[in-house]
Amino acid sequence: MTQTLTIRRPDDWHLHLRDGAMLEGVLPETARHFGRAIIMPNLVPPVVTADDARAYRDRTLAAVPAGMAFEPLMTLYLTETTDPGNVAAAHAAGLITAVKLYPAGATTNSASGVRDIDRVMPVLETMAEIGLPLCIHGEVTDPAVDIFDREEVFLDTVLDPLRTRIPELKVTLEHVTTAQGVDYVTAAEGDIAATITTHHLMINRNHILAGGIRPHYYCLPVAKRATHQQALRKAAVSGNPRFFLGTDSAPHADPTKESACGCAGVFSATNTLSCLAHVFEEEGALDRLEGFTSRFGPARYGLAPADTTITLEKRDDPVAYPAKIDTGAGPVTVFDPGHPLFWHVTA
Ligand code: NCD
Ligand code: ZN
Question: Which position among 11, 248, 287, 307 bears the catalytic label?
Answer without folding.
Answer: 248
